[in-house]
Amino acid sequence: MKSGRAGAVAHLKLLGLDLVFGGAMSLQYDPDQPVDPDTWLKFDESERIEAVKQYHRRANVRLPNERLHAVTHVIVENQLALGEACPVESVLFRLMEEGLDRHDAIHAIGFVLAERLFAGLTEKSQPADLNAEYFEKLNRLTAASWKEHGR
Fold first, then answer.
1. What is the pLDDT of residue 24?
2. What is the pLDDT of residue 48?
3. pTM value?
4. Is residue 20 part of a domain?
5. Do residues 54 and 29 make contact, with C-beta atoms less than 8 angstroms apart?
C-alpha cells in the first residue's frame, strides 16, 4: 500500500469513499462490489441514494424512474448491511453462486421487495407478518427464475 496521503486516499477508495474538495468525503457506489456495512451506514440515506444515482449516470444507464431505482438499491444494501440478522445476505450469495453478478442479484432481490411493497399498498387482505412473506419469496427466488422472466 502507498504511504502518506496517496496511501490514505487509496485505502479510502477501497472502502467506497472518495476524498473531494479538500478532505470532505463522499460515498462512491458500485453495485458489483461489496459495500462495507459500517461505511455504508455512516452516510445519510439521501447520500446513499445520490451515490447510487451517480453510479448509474456514470455507467450511462437510462432508467424510467432514477430515484425509485436508486431507493430500491439502497433498501437492499441497507438489508445487506444488517448481515446475518437479515436473510437477504444469504440470498444474495446464493444468487451469485447460481450465476448472477452482484448487480443483477441486487435487482432480483429489489424486484421481490418492490412486488411485496406494491402488494402491501394495494391488497386489502395482508398476511400477519409481511417480513415473513418477503423472506419466503426471497428464499424461492433463483437465478434461473430471474432470468426466465427476461430480466
1. 52
2. 96
3. 0.82
4. no
5. yes
